[in-house]
Amino acid sequence: MNLSPTLPSSGPSADAGDRVRALLSRHFHPEWGSAYWLERQARLGWQVCERIRTRDDLWLLGPTPTEDLRHLPIQAFIPKALHKQRPRFIVGETAGTNGEPCGTAYRDDEFQTAFIDPFLGAAQATGFPRGEPWLWVGPSGPHIIGKVVRELARQTGSMDPFSVDFDPRWAKRLADGSLGRKRYLDHVVQQALHVVRREEIGVLFITPPALAALALQLNTPQREAIHGIHYGGMSLSPATVNHFRAVFPNAVHLAGYGNTLFGVVMEIEDRHREALDYYPLGDRLQFHIVEELGAAKAGTASWPPRICRHGEIGRVLFHRLDESCLLVNVLERDQAERIAPSPAARALGGQADGLRNPQPPPALQDQLQQGIY
């Protein structure tokens, strides 16, 4: 069986079926595959590589329980053939907004494809500034976003970013509106102010609550000196972006939608927002917008779920198709509207459907530990 270190090209000319089959042959190799998927295959009772030939067949694997990602070791998802490449792997954990954190890993080249390349494409399309000092206001530690920002700054011609670290898991334990929450946010903002006053910061990568608090402390020249803002860490509304566009009038504003488990998809236009639209580029990540499993009609099977039509809102489900980690049929917390690729997305090579206004369902809003990340 082919154990070559790379899959077929992910470019537009690549045969998607060939890529899926090569990926499955690695993860389900009886000796050198990933322990997690080999165990799943044993429970299924049939040979995955014989039955699954294209992406349309991935439904046969059934849903991947989030609990598996919370409690199983990361190496269980990495094919044994790649364990000798351990020095190339980058690990991270989710923020734990709706439960215990999930862990995953990316090989360095797939980390680039998952997190860095999408931003670079959007930055080039929108004229995001290059070569200006960055300030990152957000977590490091186990959160992969803190590892991403260093590469974003470096690969847009900047030095290592200035940063203000915070612990979002602790902040989420502080009651909304409490003195503790206010003091913690003030602690973060005061550190950011010190950097802005000392350095000629041109780019902010920051969470929306931290930006709102920081903006109140900046004078007009300081706000006008910001030429780029990249939003991360929390869901965002079009109205919020439009507000910040007025507060920071000289900045290119870009939001990304993503998480530790699959990477990021970006906005690719900066203008007045009627909606926030995100598009996957390349073929390592695929989204489906699906009907809520509980909304299926009585008497019908709940799996596979019905895929929503364009313009319908449903739950976000994704496939992450990487050599380093295969995640199939993972149901996200968020809901979104299914949209076709826009002309701007197609110009960047995007052929797949995108997501409009992803956010937690209203029924979950009160249950989530939001905090400042």
Question: Would you write up a description of this structure?
Answer:
The chain has 373 residues and is α/β, with parallel strands linked by helices. It has helices spanning 16-27, 35-44, 48-51, 66-71, 108-126, 145-155, 168-171, 179-198, 208-217, 220-224, 238-247, 343-347, 362-365; strands spanning 89-93, 103-107, 134-137, 162-164, 203-206, 228-231, 252-259, 263-266, 277-278, 285-290, 313-321, 326-339, 354-359. It has 13 helices and 13 strands.
Which SSEs are present, and which pair or pack?
Blueprint (H helix, E strand, L loop, with lengths): L15 H12 L7 H10 L3 H4 L14 H6 L17 E5 L9 E5 H19 L7 E4 L7 H11 L6 E3 L3 H4 L7 H20 L4 E4 L1 H10 L2 H5 L3 E4 L6 H10 L4 E8 L3 E4 L10 E2 L6 E6 L22 E9 L4 E14 L3 H5 L6 E6 L2 H4 L8
Parallel strand pairs: 3-4, 3-5, 5-6, 6-7
Antiparallel strand pairs: 1-2, 7-8, 9-13, 10-11, 11-12, 12-13
Rg, Å, rounded = 21 Å
List SSEs in N-to-C order.
Answer: HHHHEEHEHEHHEHHEHEEEEEEHEH
Number of helices: 13
Tell me roughly what share of residues is in helical segments: 25-40%
- Mean of all residue-level pLDDT scores: 90
Question: Notable features of this structure?
Answer:
alpha/beta; 6-stranded mixed β-sheet; 5-stranded antiparallel β-sheet; 13 helices; 373 residues
Structure at a glance:
With 373 residues, the chain is an alpha/beta fold.
